């Protein structure tokens, strides 16, 4: 049985599709309503007040579409505004990407030295460090904003010399600091996983917040009895290393994708992040988002 209503997933833009992808991989029959605020992306350089406001508008827009859970797939909103969203939204569980990623890193770092990369707002907030130190105060956390990664991914420059140089530029310092785990604290970064891993070396394990967030969503839904279908009716999810395509998951074709601006490059960016073209998009205007604030 379970609850067949969709899961609401939102992000400042299309980056949160990396989280949607992990949800489809883990729970192929779940439907998603995805909202990407493509008219106002990026959030990463905006003030905390604006990030909180936009986050609440995005969350309420999905809530009005009768979702059973809200996944804040944006690291920036999760870092700056998760408490604020939890205070304002009581109807459904709200989960962000920070806590699941922080938990995974805290339990895996033998050297107790963790690096966090993300947008300027995410790193400035110290949210990952706070979450990690609430689990183990002895862990040293080093943050580094990597603002060039998002445009590189959106330009499709995934495995290129220029990307390798940018990764070196940002991350050699982290390697010198002796970290043994590195949290990919931005929606776009899992796409750069291979190039990051080959640049920093295998001694450093990469922690993908998107993957751990999907697991956390499943864990919460199982506890509440809202996973669809219920656990005993499920088939085993595709393993990470196995060839996985979102098109193969039943929930994908029945999912909805809302954007606040139909940007000229949305198709190629979505393809890069999701590994599939979107089945169709719906436009929601910024004015409609703003109406949800009151
Ligand atoms: N989705 C954002 C994040 O994960 C990256 C893009 C932005 O700056 O809005 O932080």
Structure report:
It is a single chain. The protein is of the alpha/beta class. It folds into two domains: 7-96 and 211-293, Rossmann fold (3-Layer(aba) Sandwich); 99-209, 3-Layer(aba) Sandwich (Rossmann fold). It is 45% helix and 14% strand. The chain is built from 13 helices and ten strands. Strands 4-3-1-2-9-10 form a six-stranded parallel sheet, with helices on both faces. The chain has a four-stranded parallel sheet with strand order 6-5-7-8, with helices on both faces. The longest helix is centred in the N-terminal third of the chain and has 16 residues, at 48-63. The chain is globular and about 50 Å long. The model has no long low-confidence stretch (mean pLDDT 94). Bound molecules: D-glutamic acid (DGL). Residues 11-13, 15, 41-44, 74-76, 118-119, 122, 150, 186-187 line the site of D-glutamic acid (DGL).
